[in-house]
Please model this.
Amino acid sequence: MITQITLNDGETVKVKPKISVHALREFQSKGLLPKSLLQAFVGADKEPDKMEPYLINAAWLAYVNGNPGTTMTQEQFEDKLDLNFELFGKILVDMIGDVAESDNKLASSFKRSTKKGSRKDKRKRHQN
Model:
């Protein structure tokens, strides 16, 4: 489980991806997580645009969860955080934990949607 991340200014901050049910409901009510995590994950590989905002929010949510008294705003945090879908995906998988592990289809769908492509794959997509 990821317990810390390094921001682009070199600062290492504590994160706590595992959230309580109460925290889940709060994040959902603020639109930071989808109303149905399972539904969002099952279709993540086919419609990644629906999951992308929640992937990006995962790092912020884990940071807030691990630092409840933080004075850093989400905008300040995101300004210090490089775009890294692989990291965001790992945090989100840690957040939902056993759900993803118990459902192989869900886990493999999500893994495919957050997997880094090889350099060769990127060249092929660019040429098309």
In short: The mean pLDDT is 80. Strands lie at 4-6, 12-14.
